[in-house]
Amino acid sequence: MARRATKTAAVESAATTSLTTYKGFNKDWTCRDFQYEVGKTYEHEGAVVRCASGGFHSCEHPLDTWTYYEPNVSRFAQVTASGDIDREHGGDTKIASGKLTIDFELSLGDMARKAVAYVAGLVKASLDTNVTAGYGAHSSTAGEGAHSSTAGTRAHSSTAGTRAHSSTAGEGAHSSTAGTRAHSSTAGYGAHSSTAGEGAHSSTAGEGAHSSTAGTRAHSSTAGEGAHSSTAGEGAHSSTAGYGAHSEVNGDNSIAHSAGRFGTASAVAGSAISLAAYDESVWPPKLIAVRSSMVGENGIEAGKRYRLTTAGEFEEVSE
């Protein structure tokens, strides 16, 4: 036990620990083949160990859940973690707990707002400045037109004001905004960016990063390899340019555009997808086809993921 403590914090006392955390699930409310249900409480028998089968996992930072569950194909909930708690020093905010209550489901917009509140609480506690460059530093603003930025690994930045801007540049960092016409961006590997306000913009440039918006007429974009971009609001647009990236829209009058090699896209009824195909036999790969379609036309079904073949035909792909 002492040997493991060099990598993780000491397990916290069950008598005093109760945390509000966040958890991701598959669409059917399963996690690692374990079935959960909103409103129920689960208890683990035995030792609690993070990143093992010892306990129930959740994250203190809402956007850390996106590292484990893609925002566009998963469900999320606010949960209460209690009992013994196990953490990792230097990692993200994922914990294991001996007891877990699934309180209620959260939308992507709820997750963005919860992320803003979480980071604001960290800043209030640490009295950090609004521009940070250190590992794990936090920056938050709440005023109209305010700006918040971080440059450190696993740092967090959030804004809550109208037309405010939030950005991060570090690996595994998170950026979120909740205000109308606000902007959120990340540039680091595996970072996450989210907005909840109307007309807001969210973008990521790092490999494996996630970008999502929940507001009406909002825009979400990613440029990194294997990144994901999703929107939930009406009239919102989602675009990706990276290799193997996925673009998804869940609101009416929206477009999911994936311009990168082996890119995929999906949309709901009343919206459209746009895809590109490349000749991989030459270097650099040559763009040979671009095609768009409304859902309900050309064989495109709502909620299904498609890519474009070199023949210019839509092809359904599994998630």
What does this protein structure show overall?
There is one protein chain. With 319 residues, this protein is mainly β. It has three domains: 4-106, no CATH class; 107-215, no CATH class; 223-319, no CATH class. Helix content is 6%, strand content 41%. The protein contains one helix and 27 strands. It has one helix at 108-126, and strands at residues 18-25, 30-31, 34-35, 41-43, 56-59, 75-86, 94-106, 131-132, 138-141, 147-150, 156-159, 165-168, 174-177, 183-186, 192-195, 201-204, 210-213, 219-222, 228-231, 237-240, 246-249, 255-258, 264-266, 272-279, 286-294, 305-308, 314-317. A ten-stranded mixed β-sheet has the order 8-10-12-14-16-18-20-22-24-25, with no helix packed on it. It has an eight-stranded parallel β-sheet with strand order 9-11-13-15-17-19-21-23, with helices on one face. Strand 24 (272-279) and strand 25 form a beta hairpin. The longest helix has 19 residues, at 108-126.
Q: Quote the average pLDDT.
A: 83
Largest sheet: 10 strands, mixed
Which stretches are poorly predicted, pLDDT < 50 over at least 5 residues? 1-10
Instruction: Please tally the β strands and state the result.
Output: 27
Structural class: mainly beta
Which H/E pattern describes the elements? EEEEEEEHEEEEEEEEEEEEEEEEEEEE
Instruction: Please state how the strands of the largest beta sheet are arranged side by side.
Output: 8-10-12-14-16-18-20-22-24-25
Shape: globular
Strand content: 35-45%
Q: What fraction, in percent, of the residue positions are helical?
A: under 10%
Distance from N terminus to C terminus (CA atoms, Å) equals 39 Å
Number of domains: 3
What is the rounded Rg? 20 Å
Count the helices. How many?
1
Region (Disordered): 138-246
Biased composition (Polar residues): 138-241
Domain DUF7666: 20-112
InterPro entries: DUF7666
